[in-house]
Amino acid sequence: MIERLAIIGVGLIGGSLARALRGAGAVGEIIGCGRSAQNLELACDLGVIDDCSRDPAEAVAGADMVFLAVPLGAVRGVFERIQGQLRADAVMTDGGSVKGSVVADAAAVFGEVPARLVPGHPIAGTEHSGVAASFPELYHNRRVILTPLPQTDAAALARVRAMWETAGAVVTEMDVAHHDHVLAATSHLPHMLAFGLVDLLARRQDNDEIFRYAAGGFRDFTRIASSNPVMWRDICLANADALSDMLARFGEEMTHLAETIRRRDADHLLDIFFRAKTARDSYVDGVSVPKPDSSTPQ
Amino acid sequence: MIERLAIIGVGLIGGSLARALRGAGAVGEIIGCGRSAQNLELACDLGVIDDCSRDPAEAVAGADMVFLAVPLGAVRGVFERIQGQLRADAVMTDGGSVKGSVVADAAAVFGEVPARLVPGHPIAGTEHSGVAASFPELYHNRRVILTPLPQTDAAALARVRAMWETAGAVVTEMDVAHHDHVLAATSHLPHMLAFGLVDLLARRQDNDEIFRYAAGGFRDFTRIASSNPVMWRDICLANADALSDMLARFGEEMTHLAETIRRRDADHLLDIFFRAKTARDSYVDGVSVPKPDSSTPQ
Fold first, then answer.
1. Chain B: closest CA distance from residue A274 (Å)
2. ipTM score here?
3. N or C, where is chain A less crowded by C-beta within 10 Å?
4. Same domain, B6 and B146
């Protein structure tokens, strides 16, 4: 049970956690904090939060649990503002899509990463933003990755885990660097491809006609290109090395695929498409993706 | 009204047209043709077709409308088989995703493109294949592009247009080469990116973990990677020049984006993501995508 939960950033992620914990009767009071007075007012009107402040220092006063759900570029500023304002037993966690930058920001502001800060990442979301887009089921059966450090307090870790499980999530733990590498591949790279494709087409003079004849698959494929640009700028900056490596590698793959098509190498094309379909169908069916055999190009 | 409709290839595309026309009472008898006896039997059992043959020559006998819905690589073989077997007044059309190759195949087999052949392309589909995946509403409010040639018979064109409108589609006409260029951008390129991404991840030794942590957006983004590999191999071969050009260009874009991320160019990243989000939101809302201004990189 959380007595007083401070949510810094009451958008899709923060708002959905508040709704889920409230629905489960797992929280006493919820204080919301954000830069937009209008969004905070809406959050109050919707009953997502009980009270609010635009000052993080004020919002965290007396809270036994603090959840940061702000764009990664705003994390350091929040840490600076709440330094020295937390209850001694307060547990802090976050929802950032990159963990290395959160840990580095914490070390820079607090001198070392506090034992009661449990870096975390709920693998959930939609392309919509703001508290109006939040809903209590967002985390049902979705994974939350926690990336504790050697100095992380075991009781704090247990409290954060319990909080997410109450919201319906499946919690796993992972090393900070490994998390950022895995997410570069599964989330950050696909977002770059979707943004990149839509931008490439939007920059054409015939863009209106191009989009008019976009097929049904295009709508699904590009859904993530409607995501929050500021959030994604921050993710790129926070995970720049892992992401730029993946992206450069993908660029080479596409150059290679273009060559394969140009020379009309039918067998090679069929290999790629079959391998991809098999992996994607396995993923959707919830069965293990086949291990690559030794003859598969890495 | 169609007296006798021959559908060569009773899968998602052919089966859905049969169901739509049957539902509208716009067809007398429907003869299905395909290589899989099992699929044809299922099509009969489902009432999608009235009778079937595994021989295209037999299937088209007496038909006043013939619809080819086979992978592009099979089109030429069908043309060869049905040459001289068609009723004098039979109208023929197809559902191939590339029109240049269909026209070239027709010219090669028939000496010139027949006046009663109306090349067409319904911009509709799902990632599923086979008659079991077909449904009568597939074409509702979806675009069908017809690409008549100078020699195309006006009455044949009007019959094909009426057939698709009966199935609920919005029909437009376009030049063959223009169609193939537009579709390379809006459909063929996105499929390559989805196949390419899933294949890249599937080839990693840690692929099982990678897919386990794939986010919700990944499922939508990669849906089209579950498409029929043979169909897509054929599309690549049939539209090789336009598609490989687009893909090479996209590869360069991604290499450039990787560089932008590596040098942490925050403003440039925000520009790209905002432009993409604006275009994608406009597309979904059904409003015109903003024209690129003269300062936008082409």
1. 6
2. 0.87
3. C
4. yes
